[in-house]
Amino acid sequence: MATQSASELATDDVAIRLADRRRPKISLGRAGFGLLGLIVAAGVWELVSYAKNDPVILPTVQETARTFWHYLSVQYPAVQGKTLWQHALVSAARILAGWGAGVVIGIAVGGVMASARLIRYVLDPLIEITRPLPPLAFIPLFIVWFGIGETPKFILILIGVVPVMIIATVSALDSVPPELVQASRSLGASPLWSLITVRLRSALPPIITGMRLAMGGAWTSIVAVELIAATSGLGYVINNAGVNLQTPLVLSGILAISVLGILFDSLLRLLRRLADPTTR
User: Fold this and answer.
1) Residue 100 in contact with residue 159, Cβ under 8 Å?
2) Domain ranges of the chain
3) What is the tens place of the pLDDT at every residue in 6-53?
4) Fold for domain 61-275?
5) How far is residue 263's CA from residue 89's CA, in Å, rounded to a whole number?
6) Helix-then-strand count for the chain, H and E
7) Handedness of CA 201, 202, 204, 205 (dihedral sign)
8) What pLDDT digit, counting tens, does each position of 140-181 carry?
9) Phi, psi of 131, rounded to the nearest 5 degrees
10) At CB < 8 A and 24+ separation, what contacts does 19-27 make?
11) 268 and 205 in contact (C-beta within 8 Å)?
């Protein structure tokens, strides 16, 4: 077997270093500081609750944890209710339906706007007009138009997600180097094929960041609408428990939202790492 030359060995060494740099690394120090922050926050919560000495105003961490664990297996409300994790699944299903449809529509419309200037000029003012409007302002209208079923909840999430995804997609596609598109076109790719395989692929990491932002807005919308027009879901639990002064259960519902939000965001961050291995 012939021995490698010094230049080949140097090239292989550089390639190995680049591959190692691109490989996602888990920082134990970062995880430790994050855990420390959570412990400090729980400690402050505990001190304030003892100072107040009123479980209605602020229950202790232990009481909240006991309530959270209790309602994971006990229905709420007691008659024809659901357990806390079942309420969480209801909210998560609503989120995934509206958010998923909004992401698809937003990316599709954003791709068309980034490719056709005329369509962009027509749609851009409409998006800029509707984007500052909070989706929560449409709740009374949607209840009047669609009742209190699943349709107004779905549409409410949709109108909150679509503008965010359109703006994120257009911005990401505009940042793709034109040389990549020109190279694909010179190799015979059609404008549509170039958009799908080159521009969207290059713009995928910032588009996923837009998906993360849209997910946060979707949770805000669904909890708000469940506060008003729902018989299940985490927003319904929070509202009903608040009316009955069950503060530990209110905090348990908020905790469940936080857990689901972190889970969904972690999955999207993992997706971004798969799309761009250099992301940390």
Assistant:
1) no
2) 25-54, 61-275
3) 444 344 444 444 444 444 445 666 677 777 888 888 888 888 888 887
4) MetI-like fold (1.10.3720)
5) 13
6) 12, 0
7) positive
8) 888 888 877 888 888 888 888 999 999 999 988 888 777 776
9) -60, -40
10) 21/278, 22/277, 22/278, 23/277, 24/273, 24/277, 24/279, 24/280, 25/280
11) no
